[in-house]
Automatic annotation (TrEMBL), chains A, B:
Family matches, as SUPFAM superfamilies: tRNA-guanine transglycosylase
Any GO BP: tRNA queuosine(34) biosynthetic process
GO cellular component: cytosol
The UniProt record lists the keyword Transferase: yes
Gene Ontology MF, one: tRNA-guanosine(34) queuine transglycosylase activity
Protein name: Unannotated protein
Organism: freshwater metagenome
Length: 396, 396
């Protein structure tokens, strides 16, 4: 089956399009940013607050929720929507990225340009086999096995609106040969996922395939064609997108150019402000990224300043006495309170809950306004101008 | 000067009274619970959320705010109200409790029945002199001196509505002789605080004296009379209130029986549900306590169950699969979301921000409903019945 995806407007000068994706729990206005509800919450916020910020969908984490509290427990409580009391659409990743991040150790670094996360320290991949991945879970050290069918079963238990197929997320440093072999196996896993889902998948859940192929144009194109030819409802782009942004955008372009227009496209784990502009320009419909929420918890705020990568470190000593607002003229609920940068600096430095929470709110609101503005611009035929303005540092 | 304190109703069968205390930033309906905004926020909440829960006043911490970010910085930003964007009444403690908690090491334990807190580990009292206290701050290890005048100056910089005089907070384990000498010094410090405040205190700030005297009836009565005879606007009860609740209530009773009716009375650091009932019955007007907020951050929720000290540990393994609500029929904003105990258990166990925040909301709402119900009962002449019901576990 195909997803219920209506394209409302197609930009004339780029691949950008605006649409409405309808899934079991409602509509997602695209392009859309999807906040992470990794472990059953958008950290610090209530479901209603996420909705009030304008988000239609959140992303749940298959791997983490499987290990704790367990997808079986969540199923007994009526599925992830009821468990977390979010009644809108949910997309779940397949767990591939998290499993393989543990194994390669530096995959997460390579792909995301950051320090290894918790799981990579305490969990471990024991072997990657044709059938699936043997690994040690970080919660209890127990040996576990995740096959494509396991991932789909977990996502069935979570009862998300959109499930992602299980893939091997190849890092940047591996050879072309490894990438090619891995991508082929990912395609076989795609078929197994779709077969399992046909028989056992929950009512109303749709499935996205995942394009791999590393930074190699021919492999990306082959992979995009293989995924597009499958019975999947939508298409996600995963894996290593290159060492720098220009290469990332090229990889995305190679992929979307050969994808059919009518299937929705998700770009996995990408969501910096300039990446959103470029991704939307290359025809991406949905994005997920830890950036706005993680930055908020670490005392960083998004501001319309491309020269500083759209961010300011609120914990910086220079802001100690600042009586300026977090962001002049910002309409978000956090800025509406009127706190000075000096107050937020003091609070964020001490990791006070209120600061972490309200910086998260500010950052999510900033990203949401950015994407909403680009969507409006696509519909009104002014995408080029809106994109240029955002990249020039005009506040969304 | 006397505080603007109107007593609206006096219970016939107890010392309980209901009133309205008007200070520079507005009215406090008494009896009232005062949530802790120790370091410039009620942790996890915005000022508006605290207001929406029904609280009229918050308590800022003189000692912590002096060390970080500094009361001079807060003064440059327009005072604590503007700094934290709370436009209602603020009471600031004097810093005495925190300074002396560092010194005696186990003072906090003795008084509060809990493990020593952060400051007691890294800060240190170097000497207690007639002039004040020499100590090492926990933020920078620098030697500092706090005299009664210093405390009042800090509270002047914070520009709270109600300042507390600097006192020595005597612990439970010291001798009667030490308690007597310390209490006399606290009275001399009271005079110095009032003298300083007369000349230098900010416009509109009122001052509460503090009754000490440990667990000795004659010392408590002497202290209450000394404080009552001073020019202070209100009276706080501090120090060791005994080893168990019966003794605590007795100490409070000795004190309030000799206090003049027209001055508002604050009970420092006390606020368990049964303590609120007893304290109000003994004529206390305002209470502050870390209990509801600290419990929330540690995964504990208040419930109407006296046999379990009105609390449930939401992180308990037994709740793993619970589909029950946090508290049946609870009208608070956290319970309105509808999360199961199983969900909250999972979230609280992982110290997820949303859980810590919403348990804090639930606990504060529970305490506020308890106090509001007792207040209404005093006014309608049914205090006895309301008190008995709450102590019997009827939900407020």
């Amino acid at each position: 089956m195909a997803a219920d995806f209506r394209i409302l407007a197609q930009d004339a000068g780029s691949q950008a399009r605006a649409g409405v994706l309808t899934v079991a729990h409602g509509e997602i206005r695209t392009p859309a940013f999807v906040p992470l509800a990794t472990k059953g919450s958008v950290r610090g916020l209530t479901p209603q607050e996420v909705r009030d910020l304008g988000f239609d969908m959140v992303l749940g984490n298959t791997f983490h929720l499987h290990l704790d509290p367990g997808d079986d427990l969540i199923a007994r409580q009526g599925g992830l929507h009821r468990f977390m009391r979010w009644d809108g659409p949910i997309i779940t990743d397949s767990g591939g990225f998290q499993v393989f991040s543990m194994g390669h150790g530096t995959v997460a670094d390579e792909i995301k340009g950051r320090a290894p996360n918790g799981p990579s320290r305490s969990g471990r991949v024991l072997s990657i086999e044709e059938d699936g991945v043997r690994y040690r879970g970080y919660t209890d050290g127990r040996e576990r096995f995740m096959a494509p069918e396991t991932s789909m079963e977990i996502q069935g238990n979570l009862a998300s609106d959109i499930a992602l197929v299980f893939d091997e997320c190849t890092p940047f440093h591996v050879s072309r040969e490894y990438t090619a072999r891995s991508t082929e196996r990912t395609h076989r896993w795609l078929d197994r996922c779709l077969t399992w889902h046909d028989e056992h998948g929950p009512e109303g859940q749709i499935v996205y395939g995942i394009v791999q192929g590393g930074v190699y144009e021919d492999l990306r194109i082959e992979s995009a064609q293989a995924v597009a030819a499958s019975a999947c409802d939508g298409i996600a782009i995963g894996g290593s997108l290159g060492a720098e942004k220009a290469q990332m955008y090229e990889v995305v372009r190679w992929t979307t150019e050969v994808l059919p227009a009518h299937k929705p496209r998700h770009l996995l784990g990408i969501g910096e402000i300039d990446d959103l502009v470029a991704g939307i320009g290359h025809g991406i419909d949905t994005f997920d990224c830890a950036m706005p929420t993680r930055l908020g918890r670490h005392g960083m705020a998004l501001i319309p300043d491309p020269d500083r990568r759209w961010r300011v470190d609120i914990t910086a000593g220079a802001l100690k006495d600042s009586d300026e607002p977090l962001m002049e003229g910002c309409p978000c609920p956090a800025c509406a309170i009127g706190w000075s940068r000096g107050y937020l600096r003091y609070m964020a430095k001490n990791r006070e809950l209120t600061a972490m929470r309200m910086l998260t709110v500010h950052n999510l609101a900033f990203v949401q306004r950015t994407v909403a503005r680009l969507r409006d611009a696509i519909i009104s035929g002014t995408f080029d101008r809106a994109a240029a303005e955002i990249l020039a540092g005009v506040a969304p």
